[in-house]
Specification:
The chain has 18 helices and eleven strands. The protein has helices at about 5-10, 10-25, 45-50, 55-75, 80, 85-95, 95-105, 115-135, 155-185, 190-210, 235-245, 270-285, 335-340, 340-345, 380-390, 410-425, 470-475, 475-505, and strands at about 215-225, 255-260, 290-295, 305-310, 315-320, 360, 370-375, 395-400, 425-430, 435-440, 455-465. The strands form two sheets. Strands 5-4-3-2-1-11 form a six-stranded mixed sheet. Helix 4 (about 55-75) crosses helix 6 (about 85-95) and helix 15 (about 380-390) packs parallel to helix 16. About 50% of the residues are buried.
Length: about 525
């Protein structure tokens, strides 16, 4: 047994290596943003699970790797959730248990060419299954989907318009599987190379033939980012700062002004003075202002986060109440059981209330916008639904001020590039404290970011587009295809097991005994 084998023979060392291997892909996301790293970051994890001594150990390698992946992706939560961050990582890491088992099942030992070919479809499908379950809002939502690491790669964004971020995740895992086979299985290099060539051909065809959004007129949209305003009376002082920055936009011929999440800390019905000041700003700038109210409502019980449109005469009546809340940040799941999280971290002391439907707003001159709040920009189905309902510009109002000096602000801003490319519509990501960014319908950045050190207002010339992307028309077809692959593979494996058991010779039974107690012999 060589040194490597002896190291892997230790369960604790093997688990530690699996955690480390699972954490490697995080370097492909902002802040490091090494997008190319994603295309081979899973190889160590695959090689480890492939060499597991049994299916149970491979499943455990999947769990440990999943724990490392989730913990690394959400490490910036540690100052707020403390030990509960590890609990979340352990629970969500279990979603990769089937994937670890699948790796050994398809690539363990000396697999045939057919088994390797199957792995190139089955393992990416298994990964998508984990991402699909994790994308449920109650489990934290689709933050850190592997395909999202390609947010700044133009060809990848083009493919996102065909199959969404799901297609990018599928392709990234496929390439990782092929590279792992090339490294570890010399006899299976031909199907691995064939898989890479087929993947390149299919993606090239999709890239060439997928429709590009047609741009026509441009609109001027301003983002107001006040920066960090903390301490006593911070809500009033933040409003004052936003008001100052907005006044600078007078005479700029604007179509819309966007403030960030929680930019107004009072219900406008309870504070008519603030509503009057906003209306005055709208008259001075000649544009409607989309603010975000984070307050207890006067017309119904509970605290809501709401995108509210204000025009020259005051609130227009257009209002969107946030539908998908951040677990622990805006509500505590199963508070009766997990309420203790508020005592060990900065979990929500009171649950926010949920909205019931998405809203497309008309901001004048025929311009229609689709608002989202905070991490709702991570959900591809929400932006797709808004565009299907007629939104011409997607708008996300966000605040990551709690995580100001972490990787979270940049990673959050990068998600808007994917949503824009998927839907073929420009997207504005406006925050309180950075990073604010605007992207065109191809997912390319317009102008420069407003970083976490900025307190400013900035105008962006945003080209409008028309037409529909394949992703908007056909939705999450990649996910359905992956589920079909897993179902077909499972059925084939079941047939193979049945045939194996039927073809296995029966075990000889115990010898018969004569009346005298001695074993009967053949021929007697």
């Amino acid at each position: 047994m060589n040194t490597l084998d002896r190291g892997l023979a230790s369960p604790w060392r093997r688990s530690a290596l699996a955690v480390l291997a699972g954490a490697l892909p995080v370097l492909a996301f902002p802040g490091p943003a090494l997008w190319w790293w994603a295309w081979f970051a899973l190889v160590p994890w695959i090689l480890l699970a492939r060499t597991a001594p049994g299916g149970r150990r491979a499943a455990y390698d999947g769990w440990c790797g999943g724990f490392g992946f989730v913990l690394a992706m959400h490490h910036w939560l540690l100052p707020n959730l403390h030990v509960f961050t590890f609990v979340i990582a352990a629970l969500l890491g279990a979603l990769w248990v089937p994937w670890g088992w699948l790796v050994r099942r398809t690539l363990g030992g000396a697999p045939s060419a057919g088994r390797v070919a199957a792995a190139l479809l089955v393992l990416p499908s298994g990964w998508l299954l984990a991402e699909l379950v994790r994308s449920w809002q109650g489990l934290g939502g689709p933050w850190g989907m592997l395909g999202a690491s390609q947010w700044q790669v133009a060809p990848a964004l083009r493919l996102a318009s065909v199959g969404g971020v799901w297609l990018l995740s599928f392709l990234v895992v496929t390439v990782n599987v092929a590279l792992a086979v090339l490294v570890a299985l010399r006899r299976a290099r031909v199907p691995a190379l064939a898989g890479l060539v087929a993947t390149a051909a299919a993606t090239s065809a999709a890239w060439v033939w997928s429709p590009r959004p047609d741009a026509d007129e441009r609109v001027a949209i301003a983002v107001v980012q006040p920066g960090v305003v903390a301490g006593a009376d911070s809500a009033d002082r933040r409003f004052d700062r936003e008001e100052q920055l907005t006044r600078r936009l007078a005479d700029r011929d604007l179509d819309l002004i966007v403030w960030g999440e929680s930019s107004v800390g009072f219900d406008l019905d309870d504070r008519p003075d603030l509503a009057r000041r906003l209306a005055a700003l709208s008259r001075e700038t000649g544009a409607d202002i989309l603010v975000n109210v984070d307050a207890r409502r006067s017309d119904k019980p509970g605290i809501y986060k709401s995108s509210v449109l204000v025009g020259p005469e005051g609130p227009t009546g257009d209002r969107y109440d946030k539908m998908r809340l951040v677990p622990f940040g805006e509500y505590v799941p199963f508070r009766s059981v997990l309420g203790w999280a508020t005592s060990v971290g900065k979990a929500a002391g009171e649950d926010r209330r949920q909205g019931t439907e998405q809203v497309v707003m008309d901001v004048g001159d025929g311009l229609r916008i689709g608002p989202m709040v905070c991490f709702e920009s991570a959900f591809p189905d929400m932006s797709r639904s808004l565009v299907a309902d007629g939104a011409e510009v997607l708008v996300a109002q966000s605040s990551t001020s709690t995580f100001q000096h972490t990787w979270a602000p940049e990673q959050h801003a990068s998600l808007a590039a994917l949503r824009a490319a998927e839907t073929g519509r420009p997207m504005v990501h406006a925050t309180l404290t950075g990073v604010s960014a605007v992207y065109d319908a191809n997912g390319a950045r317009i102008g420069s970011w407003l970083g976490t050190d900025a307190s400013a207002s900035r105008v962006y010339e945003v080209p409008l587009t028309h037409g529909s992307t394949p992703y908007v028309r056909y939705g999450d077809w990649t996910v359905y295809a992956a589920l079909g692959v897993l179902a077909a593979w499972g059925a084939a494996e079941g047939v193979r097991v049945v045939r194996f058991r039927r073809g296995r010779p029966a075990r000889p039974g115990p010898p018969a005994h004569t009346a005298h107690g001695s074993p009967a012999r053949p021929g007697r």
